[in-house]
């Protein structure tokens, strides 16, 4: 993008240079005096250019680029992206100040244009500002939809989909399969079945493969640098078309939501009862009718929560499974330990059940180590302070965009021995969990805005990993090498998909039915 241009008139050329230089001097003088207040300095950071700030130097792989800048500017530093001041946090101690000591202040979001377009104007649990409305949505998700009691009640849905996936892989024994793609469809089918009682295949419209493409495009747009976010005054022009693209993708899901909601309401009017009448949609529709008058639960909230579950629960879990499978295949000694544990707990004459997963400490360690090296949200979801405060000895202005680089913190050599090595043993008999209380390891975030779907993700990832590694041996196609490189997005993914060949391990072919 061209932010300014030379004049066509030769006579006005010198004046344009003088004006540009004057603006530059004023810009730097303003930044200097704003940052040099001895009582409240801003964090350090790279020198910004006039008007564009540090925008032109951004690298697409933001998580590793931000980690590199931390080596120069320290554990908390600033970037100016257009008119937006961004603060990057890259140490456990500073992360603790943001997410625990000043949790309420930082519990809001700096909602990007793409986020508003994808979530019915920011009406979901991810982007809604901290307050009564957000607390109501959080309560709905954590206490009703994603509680252990609720998840226990629908475990058969998860089991059926995992068994269906085993059958898919068994039918392609000896042939290369895209592991991530198939696990995405598995997770998507589990979620849609829990939401409204049907899988995407059951809808009969071939939506499965399309869903993955749409979800992938949505998460990429959420992480894409957007002029509308850096220059809010230009947002109405949507110069890069990000809002329009995201709105179009959102409408594809909205049409599906409208269809299943209309069908459910029509059946209720006719007095018909569906087999899946205990699904989440039934509960949400009832909540809409009986909700609190002070903080009403609306149809917009309902659809926004459906969007959160479909978009937020699919790529995240399937990418973690894909990374874990890749790391284990890359370490034969780790794979051997996992399969020995599975044989001891499950045996070769049985299939994995969810009741087994709490008896698999080494596999749990594999999952935790995968989330250390490849955290689902490498920069979490950006926070935004509701008032100016002091963090790490620096002033953090109200309205800043705060990135917490959990990816870099998880690879910090001062916290982790051999941090780039995949070593599940570091999580055996250890204190590390997902509570967000230790700021050396918090893959699901921390504080009030910690991920609401941890229990669901844990069950889905563990059951899937245990089943894939218990039921099959895996190898790469001849001549292929395993690549573990990452592609940045608001959701981290493998740059090169894992394509592998399954071979049956179990003693009885009937176990694959």
TrEMBL record:
Keywords: Heme, Iron, Membrane, Metal-binding, Monooxygenase, Oxidoreductase, Transmembrane, Transmembrane helix. Its cofactor is heme. It comes from the Eukaryota. Gene3D superfamilies: Cytochrome P450 (1.10.630.10). Heme binds at residue 451. CDD domains: CYP76-like. GO terms for molecular function: heme binding; iron ion binding; monooxygenase activity; oxidoreductase activity, acting on paired donors, with incorporation or reduction of molecular oxygen. Pfam families: p450 (PF00067). The chain crosses the membrane at residues 12-33. Belongs to the cytochrome P450 family. This is Putative cytochrome P450. It comes from Rosa chinensis.
């Amino acid at each position: 993008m061209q932010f300014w241009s030379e004049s066509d008139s030769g006579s006005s050329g010198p004046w344009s240079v003088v004006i540009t230089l004057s603006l530059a001097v004023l810009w730097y003088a303003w930044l200097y005096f704003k940052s040099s207040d001895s009582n409240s300095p801003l964090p350090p950071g790279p020198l910004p250019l006039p008007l564009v700030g540090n925008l032109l130097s951004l690298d697409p792989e933001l998580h590793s680029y931000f980690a590199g800048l931390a080596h120069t500017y320290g554990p908390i530093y600033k970037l100016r992206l257009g008119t937006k001041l961004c603060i990057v946090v890259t140490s456990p101690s500073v992360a603790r100040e943001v997410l625990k000591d000043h949790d309420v202040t930082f519990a809001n979001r700096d909602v990007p244009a793409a986020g508003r377009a994808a979530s019915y104007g920011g009406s979901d649990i991810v982007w809604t500002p901290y307050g009564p409305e957000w607390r109501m949505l959080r309560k709905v998700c954590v206490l009703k939809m994603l509680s252990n009691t609720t998840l226990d009640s629908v475990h058969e849905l998860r089991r059926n989909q995992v068994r269906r996936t085993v059958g898919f892989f068994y039918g392609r024994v000896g042939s290369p399969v895209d592991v991530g793609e198939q696990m995405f469809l598995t997770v998507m089918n589990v979620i849609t079945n829990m939401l409204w009682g049907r899988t995407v295949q059951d809808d009969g419209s071939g939506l499965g493969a399309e869903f993955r493409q749409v979800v992938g495009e949505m998460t990429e747009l959420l992480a894409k640098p957007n002029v509308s976010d850096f220059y809010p005054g230009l947002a109405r022009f949507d110069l890069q078309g990000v809002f329009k693209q995201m709105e179009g993708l959102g409408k594809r899901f909205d049409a599906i939501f409208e269809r299943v909601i209309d069908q459910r309401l029509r059946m209720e009017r006719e007095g018909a009862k569906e087999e899946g009448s205990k699904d989440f949609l039934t509960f949400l529709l009832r909540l809409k009718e009986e909700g609190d008058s002070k903080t009403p639960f609306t149809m917009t909230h309902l659809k926004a929560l459906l969007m959160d579950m479909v978009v937020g629960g699919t790529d995240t879990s399937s990418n973690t499974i894909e990374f874990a499978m890749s790391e284990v295949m890359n370490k034969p000694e780790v794979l051997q330990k996992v399969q020995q544990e599975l044989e001891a707990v499950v045996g070769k004459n049985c299939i994995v059940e969810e009741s087994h997963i709490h008896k698999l400490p080494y596999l749990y360690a594999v999952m935790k180590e995968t989330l250390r090296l490849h955290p689902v949200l490498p920069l979490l979801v950006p926070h935004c302070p509701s008032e100016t405060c002091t963090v790490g000895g620096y002033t953090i202005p109200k309205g800043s965009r705060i990135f917490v680089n959990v990816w870099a913190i998880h690879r910090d050599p001062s916290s982790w021995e051999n941090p780039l090595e995949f070593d599940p043993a570091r999580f055996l008999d250890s204190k590390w969990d997902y509570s967000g209380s230790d700021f050396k390891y918090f893959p699901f975030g921390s504080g009030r805005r910690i991920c609401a779907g941890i229990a669901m993700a844990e069950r889905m990832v563990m059951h899937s990993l245990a089943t894939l590694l218990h039921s099959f041996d895996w190898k790469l196609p001849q001549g292929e090498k395993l690549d573990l490189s990452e592609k940045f997005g608001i959701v981290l993914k493998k740059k090169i998909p894992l394509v592998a060949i399954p071979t049956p391990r179990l003693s009885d072919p009937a176990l694959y039915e």
